[in-house]
Amino acid sequence: MIGKLVSIIIPTYNYAEYIQAAIDSALKQTYGNIEIIVVDDGSIDDTQERLKVYGERIRCFLQVNQGASAARNRGLKEAKGDYICFLDADDMYRSNNIAEKVSFLESNMQFDWCYSDWAWIDNNGVEVMFGHEPKMLLAHIKAEGDVLALALQGYRLGTNVFMFRKSLTDKLDGFDESLQVLEDYDYYVRAAAVAELGYVDKVLCDIYQHEGSLGTGCDKNVAYLSRLRLHRKIKYLYSDVLRRQDVKLAWQKQQADLYRNLAVLMLGKGYAYRANVLWRGSLGYWCWQPGAYLLWLKIVWAKVL
After folding, report:
1. Contacting residues for 38 by C-beta, under 8 A, at least 6 apart
2. What is the pLDDT of residue 216?
3. What are 50-55's contacts with CB under 8 Å, separation 24+?
4. Which candidate in 37, 99, 167, 238 could, as Cys together with 31 as Cys, close a disulfide (CB 3.0–4.6 Å)?
5. Could you give the number of structural domains in the chain?
6. pLDDT tens digits, residue range 250-271?
7. What is the domain-level CATH number for residue 58?
């Protein structure tokens, strides 16, 4: 009996040296009923040549470079599966990844999405840690069910470890293309707000550590402004949850860190008065920050000069 169709979406941008390993890991799944959707987000290396060897085993779409969110959204638009997974072009699935997650969701109808543990792999191909080891990761505490409060406290996960029912991704209206960073975190928070999350307690993905990132790339200025946009969005959408005692403190510290870093950025660009406003905003969220008052002295000195 053939199981339900699973769509594996692989967005890529100038990842020619990695993309084949990612695709091969998807093709080697023990679960047979899959479709592999590769969205090339305007690569200018030899990605397209490397994709041709797969022929009809993959569905490939080429678009003008628009960033990771737009690439994933194109994949969602083209997906035909009952279940949706994402795989970054520089990472890999273990052979039983899809089978384990489909089995879990088929046996646990209360969950509309699930995630697994994973391994971090260094440049030498050595497993340096597992997803359950670092703090502030959901796998560290093996969390499941209603995880919105944990998500808003900063507990993170990457897109590679998830499997979604198509009915859930249809509700989420895609990735936010206005965000240059943390678009995956935004998607995960929105999913947590509407559906319970299941946990598969097995290492099913390998995440590789190396330089480079999917998308157009962005400097610190763009990255922090994206973070600011995301935090304002979350504050608007989930203000009631953010007032809860188990969430409030962690959220305030995140905001303080964001505004302080923006102040440093503005000061470095010579905007002392703007840096001062951001610094005050940071203290409004959390007073006791290491280095905050040294930063204030630097701002005062810059204003004097």
Report:
1. 10, 11, 12, 19, 23, 51, 58, 59, 60, 61
2. 44
3. 50/16, 50/19, 50/20, 51/19, 51/23, 53/20, 54/23, 54/27
4. 99
5. 2
6. 999 988 988 998 899 889 988 9
7. 3.90.550.10
Range of the domain at 249: 244-304
Which pLDDT does position 190 carry in this prediction? 97
pLDDT at 145 over 50: yes
Amino acid at 104: F
Q: How confident is the model at residue 210 (pLDDT cuts 50, 70, 90)?
A: low
Residue 220: inside a domain, yes or no?
Answer: no
Give the residue from 208, 229, 262 where a domain finishes. 208
Is the pLDDT confidence value at 215 over 50? Answer: no
Residue type for 125, please?
G
| Strand partners of residue 196 | none
DSSP the chain: -----EEEEEEESS-HHHHHHHHHHHHT-S---EEEEEEEES--SSHHHHHHTTGGGSEEEEE----HHHHHHHHHHH---SEEEE--TT-EE-TTHHHHHHHHHHH-TT-SEEEEEEEEE-TTS-EEEETTSSTTBGGGTT--B--HHHHHTT-B--GGGEEEEHHHHHHHTS--TT-SS-HHHHHHHHHHHHS-EEEEEEEEEEEE--S--SSS---HHHHHHHHHHHHHHHHHHSHHHHTSHHHHHHHHHHHHHHHHHHHHHHHHTT-HHHHHHHHHHHHHH-S--TTHHHHHHHHHHHHH-
**192 and 257 both lie in a single domain:** no
**Residue 291 is encoded by which pair of tokens?**
């280095």
The tokens for 150 are: 């944990």
